[in-house]
Amino acid sequence: MSESLLDRRERLLGPRLTTFYEQPVHLVRALGTKVWDADGKEYLDCYNNVPHVGHCHPKVVEAICKQAGTLNTHTRYLHEGIVDYAEALTGSFADPLNSAMFTCTGSEANDIALRMARAVTGATGVIATDHTYHGNTMAVSQLSCTNPPPDRWDSVDFVSAPDSYRPISSEDWAKEVEAAIARLEKRGHQLSALVICPFFANEGFPDLPKGWLDPAIRAVRKAGGIIIADEVQPGFGRLGTHFWGHEKSGFVPDIATMGKPMGNGHPVAGLVTSRKVMEAFRETFRYFNTFGGNPVSMAAALAVWDVIREEGLQENALEVGDYARAGLRDLAEKHPEIGDVRGSGLFFGAELVHDRETKAPATDFTKAVANAVRHKGVLMNFLGVHYNVLKMRPPLVFSKDDADRMLKAVDEALAEVPLG
Ligand code: PMP
């Protein structure tokens, strides 16, 4: 028998590579909200936030092909693409966020944001939540508790991930931030930055009221630190009500980083900050990025930018997201395992529990449901602090028919999978 693709991957790329699902899916093509595997089976993609405006969107494909056939080079030449995109992007931010920088991955963007924070504050301490992911560089991987580095830097400290289902108050969370600042100071590190996803996407996307973060933000600023908002997941209109996650939370960060959906699959990422922070960074670090902001990446990003507006995708996210959540709430009436339905726009899901009274997380059950739904041709994931939240972030062209298909699969899976 010939060696399986999974075995070849392991042999050539090494052990412990992550795959989704107990039986990984081998995809060969995609369009809009659908993907197809090597056997021709169709799946509805409810999870992939990379193909933001739909898989293989013709306008994005055309922009990439046209620019690749005209010119692609590193970023030391003058080119309109990078400034055209920077102009569009910075125009979507409040004052004083008017300077952009481009990279190839969200990890790099967060890495630079940490360096910018050092440059502008002169300090080294960083705070993150204890259930987040901000990327894979050596510095950024220090911000992970779920995949802890072997050598934790003493310049990094953590606060608990906010939770709206088992809530802690905004003031208590700010006290946690103050305590982390004090611990850092004790270890000789003044605060340079609090790094958060404003939607707490990896933490289980709690429904936090606007202004909930204000006391913590005040504590950070009082200590001389800045706020880095990681918009890699909530950005670019996904939340429906707002274009950026920090707008929904009601604050203006000092640096906003972004990536994944920005190029619809083409690797482009970046950050936006103030002129003051950018100047401090440029004065402190000599920085060059060969591919960051190259003409093809900028053509891809600009096409995505235009499609979001031309096709009203933020509005679609709001409408279809509300519809899908209402459907999940209907399912909750007959499936007591659904403890909470939450999210915003096309970033939503359901927290599954053994018992609504105790809210005991149904972690194994949630994993089994995600796998059962996969066999019904619908792709989603599960995460959150207890890994018991079905998480959905489909391409923004997701329709109400797509939502109905997802709801049917979840309904059937909840009925079939034993709670255990
Ligand atoms: N920040 C967040 C919130 C992410 O979810 C991710 C990727 N999962 C990253 C940063 C890192 O982005 P990349 O994989 O492009 O380096």
Automatic annotation (TrEMBL):
Keywords: Aminotransferase, Pyridoxal phosphate, Transferase. The keyword Transferase applies. GO terms for molecular function: pyridoxal phosphate binding; transaminase activity. The keyword Transferase applies. Its cofactor is pyridoxal 5'-phosphate. Pfam families: Aminotran_3 (PF00202). Belongs to the class-III pyridoxal-phosphate-dependent aminotransferase family. This is Aminotransferase class III-fold pyridoxal phosphate-dependent enzyme. It comes from Rhodalgimonas zhirmunskyi.
